[in-house]
Amino acid sequence: MKKIDLFMIRSFIGPLILTFFIVLIIFILQFLWMYVDELAGKGLELKVLGELLFQFSLTFVPLSLPLAILLASLMTFGNLGEFLELTALKSSGVPLQRIMMPILIFASFLAVASFLFADYILPISNRKARTLLYDIRRKRPELNIQAGTFYNGIDGFSIKITDKDPETNRLDGIFIYDHRDGIGNTAVIHADSGYMTVTGDESGLILTLYNGNAYKDIEEKNVPQEKKKYPFRRDQFSEQNMIIELTGFGLNRSGLDLYRSNYAMLNTSDLTFFVDSLADRYKTRSDAYYDEFSRTRLFSPAQHFSGGYYQYGDTAAAKKLENFNSRAVFDTLNFHDKSTSIIRALNFARDGTAYMTEISESMLAEAKNLTKYQAERYKRYTLPFACLVFFFIGAPLGAIIRKGGLGTPAVISVLFFLVYYVITLSGEKFAKELIISVPVGMLASSAILLPIGIFLTYKATTDAAIMNAETYIIFFKKITAFFTGIKPEKENEGTGPVA
Fold first, then answer.
1. What is the DSSP letter of 146?
2. Structural domain containing residue 366
């Protein structure tokens, strides 16, 4: 390895490590911002909170590495250009491609490492992080009840509140459905307001209710069904305390099999197995539905025509049916038979339409589930490839702008990453909604940004002044002259009289 290679790699590693941890911390802070309501007030130990942050930080590594490479390459080549080191290397006969080569090889190793990390470590980290977050959510359930929705996390009860004051934890419009008897909504409590707390040992949930009514159906024993009057008892109260026993609401650690079949928790081999299995099942069900529709809806089970009966799969009968002139037969019928035939045809059409609507919804849900696994498998390859795409953008762009530090490179990196992130999310969403194909949706961001990287590399190699404002001014003057017919004045042109 030559000295120039060691020099370039050493210049790149420092900014890479710095920017990688900066980006990783930003993603961790974003995670805390999203889940702070579910983590605050749970009495979590520092060990548990540290484990949660560590596992989620591992899940952010494949997404942080491309942005870190983009920012580090911008800083590295920006510093080299700002301090004229890049100019010195070029004047010594070393082309830009040769200067970029050692960092390109290093970035390729990082891309391979990113793929291996996403394939072997990321599924385990995802599973541990999501399982631990699920266990934390089940701890202190009174903090998880949201206004306007039914909460069924407590066995035997369904609770709904109309409004919740986040400062005082006062609950308004409380409905409590007691399902412990397993016979439906036979016991209901409604209160205007109340408070919900957990006992000190977290073994019970204390409900303090104000101004409400309790309704309970009275069971009528030995009364025939037709003679039941369904009486109920109503108790009115101004204040009532209710204690619900809680079991398993401490931080009980669940097994890792909780999310074992989720697409984000699988490696590429498992994803390939799921994709093949789901695709085979989709095709099998599609063929079965088509077969059933053809036999029972498209034609009646036995339709009489031309002296024979049509059955599904009978090729000779199908050819006869193709040559069968239904209009001629219909014209031979009397008015009553025509009316009956039209009514039966409409009933067959409505029945077939209802059947196809029901089946299409089921098949659509199955197709969307299949695309989730396909999109995740493509993501395992697109994120490592993004490391190379961002290098081809950052390195030549740093050589062009010739600005180091975290200022200008950080702004440019964020802009490019936002473009990449928006295109990736949009393509992934369109693919999962079956609007576009999965390869097109998942590869759209790389297909758009890679030509930009190649263009920037070409411009940096030819020392094009694409960051010079005068270049664009001259370009727009030429465009204006083309449409107006007025030639732009040349600089330093003589203005004296001609001899």
1. -
2. 263-374
